[in-house]
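This part of the workshop introduces the protein records we will be handling. Getting from the letters to the tokens is the skill we practise here. The record below serves as our worked example for the rest of this section.

…
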Amino acid sequence: CRQTGINLAKGLIQATLSRETANYLLNEINIQPFMNVLNEKDYGVDELLLSSLLSTEKLRVPGVYPERCLSSQPTFEQTYFTRLSTWYWERTADNCKSGVWRHNLCLFGMRDLPYLANSNYIMANKLLPSVDYGAISCMGEILFNRTHLVLNDTQQLDLSFYDNLPMVR
């Protein structure tokens, strides 16, 4: 994106940001010119904004995973941990008990909650109120409990999962 000096990178629209990173993007640099360029496009720009900003090293965004490290990873799955997605071609008897699919992604429901609750991912993609609103409500409670309550050993997050990710320094 020559107009802004930002390298285009495609990624997920969800991101897990440190407070320092979020404050920098909101208060220290002006991302509006880049957003204006993206808004001229018709499709897929939601997958470009954060990935591009976070991987352009000359922006000096604190706490990010630089582009040079992204290209050194052998698989896409090793470069994110924010969301759990079950693609149709990855389906098993346990990872999409709802049996509902949209755009090749599982639409999780109530029957998927044990699988989601035991996942190390921070959020699940996709939950839709029109498919199963109860699952959304329960997932909110699961996230609240993970954050604010001391749980038994089987419900606590495995912190070694995060410690061993390539983007954790």
In short: DSSP finds seven helices and four strands in the chain.
